[in-house]
Design brief:
CATH topology of the largest domain: TIM Barrel
Shape: globular
Number of domains: 3
Distance between the termini: 37 Å
Largest sheet: 8 strands, parallel, barrel
Mean pLDDT: 91
Strand content: 25-35%
Number of strands: 34
Strand order of the largest sheet: 4-5-6-7-8-9-10-11
Radius of gyration: 25 Å
Number of helices: 12
CATH superfamily of the largest domain: Glycosidases
CATH class of the largest domain: Alpha Beta
């Protein structure tokens, strides 16, 4: 392949750390980008800082640079940064400024995608759940309630971003206005409002919009560069773009090198040769691009989003899934790449991305690195050493606590006549509950047909006995009781709010509306928030745990110990005979496991392990299992 003119110079004189005079930033005034007056082609790759342990940010960014990329792109999740209205968190894994500065230190430019809506297969597309408290508020519009919330958030966020811009010596060369609004497009004033909101708070770098090619005309803003998202490169792909935007550089903001997985579906894989061919076409025609995802990371905790195209399906824990060694690797034990053979294992990746969830190289990585080496004027950095993996001794849970035993360690319950949905619970300084489970209790003195609408799924108990399941279209359970009154319990789980489409407007979780038996409304509810925050597990340490029985049916917490030795390493947790639940390691929520797959292992970052003993707590929703195992390779 001949080298495009924009790549025939050494980028080293245009690195985020070395450039001292910042006169002219990224410009889009001709058919090609320029940076500081030089013709510039963006080789971008997406890494979401909030999906990667902070301890591994530098490693992942170094691997992005070593592959040949010059830019990292990241979303900014509003729901994580403002978990309660008016309370902001930019610490630890949410330290956006440190992530951006680390990117600069390793020689990468940054394109920031601050939302407020980001999609990203994250809960409610990155919007805070407390926005759903007001049924009249219209998300992603110029409705006053939404604008007021965005303005307060942007006041806090953009003040942090401004000093990181190119013109102030930082690595941020472009900022995206919202995300894929053309697929939503219910308020023509909304995108111009956001553009002005960024400008008046001090954003001076190039502004972009991002949409699929067919939705781009509805999502673009006059005077703002439109970029497009695509799955493959074909003749005529830019037809709509050329109609509204000529003599401008073409930027593929998202080239999807894979796709996300949902629970119960098959794992989605994209051929590495197809990726290599498409990227080579981008380079041949001097098209800037961003690989989505370069490194997917993990939906730690409860942050995963969901799809709903007739059936609600939660996105799996790995963004988007852990995968087995390729068949060819199983045969050879090696990955083929530049300097062939390479003596490191090669994997299929989360999101079928370029770099795996645990930071391992893939066939796509080596193919892209070889391609970039053939067109770049300067040599690429050496490959960073892979993060070591380990297999630890298998474990059996030693102690357990039924959910009913831990209610005393939860925060004070809400007492109300009628059931209240998760978001409207009067807790967390009026911000409601965002994630996890809600337990509703009330006494009933007669049986009949129980009717309730739940989001997303609920187990129904009489006292401690499971009598039925609600959710996914099932709204009725037959209740049969003796003469004495019984405690009715309904445990509802939020399995992830829809992250795309107009359905985000109606994603309230818990019990939605009244609960009836034979059409008679039930009253007098005690409502427990089971959100499993760190503070809850701290209180749980004072509980009197029970020895694990041979078998237990019902929701319960199980305690075990992982012995990591003197030098903890990354590993993957395997729960062969467990059903459904969440795993907590030293207080970190690793995310959801579910026997239906496709994901079969949970990633444990070695950075979250202590030398010696490590506390593992499983919250299992249905039935106890026997063993907890680890493996040094991810599995489907």
């Amino acid at each position: 392949m001949s080298t495009p003119s924009c790549l025939r110079f050494n980028w080293s004189h245009l690195t985020p750390l070395e450039l001292k005079v910042r006169a002219v930033g990224l410009q889009a005034k001709s058919p090609h980008f320029t940076l500081e007056g030089h013709k510039f082609l963006i080789f971008g790759g997406s890494i979401h800082y909030f999906r990667v342990p902070q301890e591994y940010w530098r490693d992942r960014l170094l691997k992005l640079r070593a592959c040949g990329f010059n830019t990292v792109t990241t979303y900014v999740p509003w729901n994580l940064h403002e978990p309660q209205r008016g309370t902001f968190d930019f610490s630890g894994n949410l330290d956006l400024e440190t992530f951006v500065l680390t990117a600069a230190e390793v020689g990468l430019w940054v394109i920031l995608r601050p939302g407020p809506y980001i999609c990203s297969e994250i809960d409610l597309g990155g919007l805070p759940s407390w926005l759903l408290q007001d049924p009249k508020l219209r998300l992603r519009t110029t409705h006053k309630g939404f604008k007021d919330a965005v303005d307060k958030y942007f006041d806090h966020l953009i003040a942090r971003v401004v000093p990181l811009q190119y013109h102030q010596g930082g690595p941020i060369i472009a900022v995206q206005v919202e995300n894929e609004y053309g697929a939503f497009a219910v308020d023509k004033e909304y995108m111009p409002y956001l553009q002005k909101a960024l400008l008046k708070r001090g954003i001076v770098e190039l502004l972009l919009t991002s949409d699929t090619e067919k939705d781009m005309p509805k999502g673009r803003i006059k005077g703002v560069l439109a970029t497009i998202n695509l799955n493959s490169f074909w003749k005529g792909i830019f037809t709509h773009l050329y109609k509204v935007q000529r003599n401008k550089p073409i930027m593929i903001m998202e080239y999807w090198v894979g796709w996300f997985d949902t629970w119960g579906d098959i794992h989605k894989v994209k051929n590495a040769n197809d990726v290599e061919k498409t990227v080579s076409e981008f380079i041949k025609f001097e098209i800037s691009f961003n690989v989505y995802m370069f490194h997917g990371g993990t939906n730690f905790g409860f942050i995963n989003g969901a799809t709903d195209f007739g059936i609600h399906k939660g996105v799996v824990t790995s963004y988007v899934v852990l995968a087995n060694l390729m068949l060819s690797v199983l045969k050879r034990g090696l990955c083929w790449g530049p300097g062939w053979p390479v003596t490191v294992p090669c994997y299929l990746a989360d999101y079928d991305a370029v770099l795996t969830e645990a930071g391992d190289y893939t066939e796509k990585y080596f193919k892209l690195r070889k391609l970039f080496e053939s067109v770049l004027a300067s040599p690429l950095p050496p490959l960073p050493v892979l993060t070591p993996k380990a297999v630890y001794p298998s474990m059996s849970p030693s102690l357990y606590l039924p959910l009913w035993d831990v209610l005393q360690y939860l925060n004070e319950p809400v007492i109300t006549d009628q059931p209240v949905n998760m978001e409207n619970l009067p807790i967390n300084n009026g911000s409601g509950q965002s994630y996890g489970f809600v337990l509703y209790e009330t006494y009933i003195c007669s049986g009949g047909l129980l009717n309730a609408k739940v989001h997303d799924i609920a187990q129904v108990f009489l006292n401690e006995t499971l009598i039925g399941i609600l959710g996914y279209g099932y709204e009725n359970v037959n209740v049969s009781i003796d003469e004495e009154c019984q405690l009715l319990r309904i445990l509802v789980e939020n399995q992830g709010r829809v992250n795309f489409s107009w359905k985000i407007q109606s994603e309230r979780k818990g019990l939605i509306g009244s609960v009836t038996i034979d059409d008679i409304p039930l009253e007098g509810f005690i409502i427990y928030s089971v959100d499993m925050k760190v503070s809850f597990f701290e209180r749980l340490r004072s509980a009197t745990w029970r020895p694990v029985p041979a078998s237990y049916l019902g929701p319960a917490f199980y305690l075990s110990t992982l012995k990591a030795g003197s030098s903890p390493k990354d590993t993957f947790l395997r729960l062969l005979d467990w059903n459904y639940g969440f795993v907590f390691i030293n207080g970190h929520n690793l995310g959801r496991y579910w026997y239906i797959g496709p994901q079969e292992t949970l990633y444990i970052p070695g950075a979250w392990l202590h030398p010696g003993d490590n506390e593992i707590i499983l919250f299992e929703r249905s039935k106890s299992g026997s063993y907890i195992q680890t493996t040094n390779v991810p599995m489907l």
